[in-house]
Specification:
The chain has about 400 residues and is an alpha/beta fold. It has helices spanning about 20-30, 55-65, 75-90, 110-115, 130, 135-145, 160-175, 190-200, 235-240, 265-280, 300-310, 325, 335-350, and strands at about 5-15, 35, 50, 100-105, 150-155, 180-190, 225-230, 245-255, 290, 320, 350, 375, 380-385, 390-395. A 10-stranded mixed beta sheet has the order 5-4-6-7-1-8-14-13-9-10, with helices on both faces. A two-stranded antiparallel ribbon has the order 2-3. Strands 11-12 form a two-stranded antiparallel ribbon.
Length: about 400
């Protein structure tokens, strides 16, 4: 088995909690956080549910101790919030002690500031600094600056698979010996752009999202940030570090089918999972839990479900669930928060419930785990699929002492 790299720290902020511990408590207690929109001025505030972080921008500015004239977008602020948690959790006190990088994923970047200032900055040059924070690269650099990181910094934006690809790149950088430590993850804030865009696509639900339910109506958007610290075995041994879990395999493939829809048979999803198993040296029957992409859109759940049946067999599909009813679909951050949830599943030997499920889909007989379930979990598969057909699958495995070289 390809042992991958060690996960030594995690940080997260989402609608269900401002820390890893708070997120875990919400997951095991079935405490979803879908509410009406409060932090954005939009005509849609009263007619849709979202997974909104109940911290205002001003509160985030104060907690991060940013200067009053800062140009941090909300995406950058929640990203810095989660990344700092991860670094602290990993026990890192000298961020540049080893060859360290940051791979940050985002889809909207600083769009929230652009929306607020675009129409006025032509007349007021002082507002240009806010527009300059629009791109995802600015978000990544701001997070790196907040960490004091001087090394490799890059951004990935492949829609909803972005953070999975960030994890993959970070793992490859360590496996190839290019870096010793990589902070990987993703961050995305809610914006009018995403709300209006997904509404135009007619895939938003006006009720709580219900992944894999026959009567599912669509997704609920959310905002979140999560980062994980990946470290080489050499660093782990040198500091006798606790390993939370391992990135044991990964795969990426493109569906090449449609700008926003997945193919009916889940070709990209199937190939991504197949590549992940090959990369890890694992067999499908070794998977104990799948954290499915599970967006609750008619297209995704049908496509992903068919891909899962193709690779596992109709009668051998392991326990699976979507955690998006808890948090909403957090776009580029989704794979990062679900990576944290996958590690928590391994640590606590728990399968989290797929909330809101009632009626099996007519196309196949796949039933998600709808109540919390405790059992031994050695390997977790986490799926993430993005617009443009970018499909990614990451395998996480339980850490054992004998895994350290």
């Amino acid at each position: 088995m390809n042992r991958g790299v060690a996960i030594t720290g995690m940080g997260i902020i989402s609608a269900i909690g401002n820390s890893v511990a708070e997120n875990y408590e919400a997951l095991v207690n079935g405490a979803m956080a879908m509410t009406r929109i409060e932090n954005i001025m939009t005509v849609h505030a009263g007619n849709m549910f979202v997974g909104e972080i109940k911290k205002t921008n001003q509160q985030l500015i104060e907690e991060l101790e940013l200067p009053i004239d800062n140009n941090f977008s909300r995406t950058a602020m929640i990203g810095a919030f989660a990344a700092k948690q991860a670094v602290k959790n990993a026990g890192i006190t000298a961020i540049n002690e080893y060859r360290t990088g940051l791979v940050s994923a985002s889809s909207v970047g600083g769009m929230d500031m652009t929306e607020n200032h675009y129409y006025n900055y032509f007349k007021n040059p002082e507002l240009i600094k806010y527009i300059s924070g629009h791109d995802g690269g600015d978000v990544a650099q701001k997070i790196a600056d907040e960490l004091g990181l001087k090394g490799f910094v890059t951004t990935i934006s492949t829609a909803c698979s972005s953070a999975a690809n960030a994890i993959m790149l970070g793992a490859r950088l360590i496996q190839s010996g290019k870096l010793d430590r990589v902070i990987v993850g993703g961050t995305d804030a809610l914006t009018k752009f995403t709300i209006n865009g997904f509404k135009t696509l007619l895939i938003l639900s006006d009720a709580h999202n219900a992944p894999y339910d026959n009567d599912r109506k669509g997704l609920n958007l959310g905002e979140a940030a999560a980062f994980l610290v990946l470290e080489s075995d050499e660093v782990v041994k040198e500091h006798d570090k606790k390993v939370l879990a391992r990135v044991s395999g990964f795969g990426n493939a493109n569906d090449a089918f449609h700008q926003t829809a997945s193919s009916e048979n889940g070709d990209g999803a199937f190939l991504a999972m197949e590549k992940a198993f090959e990369n890890a040296g694992l067999k499908p029957n070794q998977i104990d839990y799948i954290n499915v992409h599970g967006t609750a859109t008619p297209n995704n759940d049908l496509s992903e479900g068919r891909a899962i049946i193709r690779i596992f067999g109709a009668e051998q599909v392991p326990d699976f669930s979507s955690t998006k009813p808890f948090t909403g679909h957090t776009l580029a951050a989704a794979a990062a928060i679900e990576a944290v949830y996958s590690v928590l599943a391994l640590q606590h030997n728990v399968v989290f419930p797929n909330l809101n499920f009632k009626t099996p889909m007519t196309e196949f007989n796949l039933i998600p785990q709808t109540t919390i379930k405790y059992k031994n979990i050695e390997h977790v598969l986490s799926n993430s699929f993005g617009f443009g057909g970018n499909c990614s699958a990451v395998l996480f495995s339980k850490a054992h002492d004998e895994d350290i070289y």
